[in-house]
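Hi again,

Forgot to attach this to my earlier email, sorry! This is the prediction with 5-O-phosphono-beta-D-ribofuranosylamine bound. I've pasted everything inline since the attachment limit keeps bouncing my files.
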Amino acid sequence: MKRFAVFVSGNGSNLQAMIDAVKAGQIKAELALVFANRHKAYGLKRAEEAGIKTLVLEPRNYATPQSYDREIVLYLKKENIDFIVLAGYMKILTPWFVKQYDRKIINVHPSLLPAFKGARGIKDQFTYGVKVAGVTVHMVNDKMDAGPIIMQEAFKVSEKETLESLEERIHEIEHRLLPKCVAMFVDGKLKIGPRKVKIADRK
Ligand code: GRF
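Structure tokens for the complex follow:
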């Protein structure tokens, strides 16, 4: 069985969705490690409650992003991690890191990429006044929020929408879409090219 790590920086509600999906047998892989760049990340509590090993390394203890990422990868290799899911991990991986896990890192982003890249995807969409919002799950490459898209889901934004209601709707989709994409990855259903991901069994 494949072993995977989930990277978090905060609440970890997407991590929770994956913990539940593994338990339910939807994702047929072992969630072997939860990594955080902050001791305060609530996701760590969720991991502990689920009996999953955790690791925290704080970037300020490392001279460069490269030395930080090297240390993380050392642990990942030691734990025989086959692939990684970024679930609200608010740090950009170095190109070196991405190369170590080429086409083996999945990210969830709270907008219809390539629109509204970056750390404030939900707020930026709301402020901009989009009429259609959504979620993207994609493979990670060496450019931020720019890797090949696995799946997207869109919905109409009503005029009554508040930032909070938009957030809620986006999270609800994320918690469905991310485990679904991870399951397809694990089941070998994704044909990952340099720009496009093809899903087997789909025309
Ligand atoms: C999600 O909206 C995700 O799309 C973004 O960061 C947020 C993380 O939320 N990358 P959580 O920590 O999973 O609750």
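The first helix runs from residue 13 to 23. DSSP finds six helices and nine strands in the chain.

That should be everything now.

G.
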